[in-house]
Write a structure and sequence with these properties.
five-stranded mixed β-sheet; globular; 17 strands; single chain; eight-stranded mixed β-sheet; alpha+beta
């Protein structure tokens, strides 16, 4: 059975938002909060807004979509003693006025929120609630009036389902990435979060857990095509409005994915074929293709001799540095440098053969589909020329082959800075 657990973890790293980006988003969100607070302080109309994040950003299941545009949600709460006399349109207008001018595009007044658009980056959705102490919040819906809704309760429910290893959150991200790649009538992130939380089958491997969870979801939907909201508004069927066409499409895609997963996990499937099966649903440009080769698969390994490799780093306008010395002195290895890996010391008696392996690791390598990892024959000069094209953790290994046995090996890490 092909084991793609590590590739799933790499895939998760590729689709999840990076921590630095999350910090930027929080800073941007907090700036909007400050602007809204100041608006009501200046207005002095008796309302003082409070805020609570909601949705996938707060649940840490948000992914970076292929079009690079996504939304985050930040609820605005007005604590009151009774239902406000002001109309819902008035509350929406206040928030529009408060954030107007914060971005180049004017705020969009939607049915359930006010949306701020950060060009080619993301949307910040601002739903509005009133809250009476000890009661469920009411959402300002321009079409339906004040309706009971408590996204804070949903976050608490979901977090109660989360395992210590974070596998449930990863599976939700995989489902969202599938939907993002398909660009069809697949369910929302909210629906996938509920279906995953209610049907997850945990396993030490993510590929197995994901497959078994897909099977469990399909079995549940075959019995009753419904997804009930577990929190206020309680027992709302989020699949109730699905047309027969939309329902058939979802179930058909689900069945197709399960078949591909079974092929990937089959004892007859090679690692490469398993990767292709997963890529057919996640996208070949995003799900990593396992191309790493291992010297043990080609030669008997019996380390008898010493081998040391180093790398000369050449950057225009600077003198050449040894990579080992750069790492020792904590100097950053930047992009767009020429790297010449070479054998610095080797006591293997000649004749022998030299082989190399270059392995790229990390989110950027996956995004570029350049993980690599093939074992390559030396050109005859006992060195390998590469370039530091993109950031991430990389490594290079060198092998000495004598009489068809690997008798020496050496490795050097190549940490390229962003």
């Amino acid at each position: 059975m092909a084991n793609c657990h590590k590739l799933f973890l790499d895939f998760n790293a590729a689709i999840a938002l990076e921590s630095n980006y999350k910090k930027t988003l929080r800073k941007s969100r907090d700036a909007v909060r400050d602007k809204i607070r100041k608006y009501f302080q200046d207005k002095q109309n008796g309302f003082s807004p409070k805020f609570h994040g909601q949705g996938s950003f707060m649940m840490n299941t948000i992914i970076e979509p292929l079009d690079r545009e996504f939304d985050i949600d930040d609820g605005i709460y007005f604590k009151v003693e009774v239902e406000p006399l002001q109309s819902i349109s008035t509350f929406h207008r206040w928030i529009c006025e408060a954030v107007d001018g914060h971005t180049k595009q004017k705020p969009i007044d939607k049915q359930t929120c006010v949306r701020l658009v950060y060009a080619r980056q993301y949307h910040l959705d601002l739903p509005i609630y009133y809250l009476i102490e000890g009661q469920t919040p009411y959402l300002a819906h321009k079409g339906q009036g004040w309706i009971k809704s408590d996204p804070r309760e949903f976050i608490k429910w979901f977090n109660g389902k989360v395992d210590e290893d974070g596998q449930l959150k990863r599976i939700v991200r995989y489902l969202k990435a599938w939907s993002d790649y398909r660009k069809g009538d697949l369910p929302s992130g909210l629906i996938f979060s509920i279906l995953a939380a209610n049907n997850i089958v945990f396993d030490e491997r993510d590929d197995v857990a994901f497959y078994q969870t897909l099977v469990s979801i399909k079995s549940q939907l075959a019995l009753n095509f419904a997804c009930y909201r577990p929190t206020t508004p309680i027992n709302e069927n989020l699949l109730e409005d699905y047309s027969k066409t939309k329902k058939d499409y979802f179930l058909g895609q689900l069945g197709s994915f399960i078949q591909s997963a079974e092929k990937a996990l089959s004892d007859k499937s090679s690692q490469k074929n398993a990767c292709k099966a997963w890529q057919s649903h996640f996208g070949k440009d995003r799900f990593p293709f396992e191309s790493e080769e291992f010297i043990e698969d080609y030669h008997q390994v019996n380390i008898q001799y010493g081998l040391k490799i180093d790398c000369l780093v050449s950057q225009e306008g600077f003198r050449t540095h040894s990579l080992i010395q750069m790492i020792f002195n904590k100097l950053p290895l930047l992009r767009n440098n020429t790297l010449k890996f070479y054998i610095e010391d080797c006591n293997v008696p000649k004749p022998f053969q030299v082989k190399w392996k270059i392995r790229n690791v990390g989110k950027e390598a996956i995004r570029r589909n350049q993980i690599r990892g093939q074992i390559l024959n030396d050109g005859g000069n006992h060195q390998r020329i590469e370039s530091s094209d993109f950031y991430g953790s990389h490594f290079v290994e060198c092998y000495i082959i004598k009489d068809d046995v690997c008798v020496a090996r050496s490795r050097i890490d190549v940490p390229i800075s962003d």
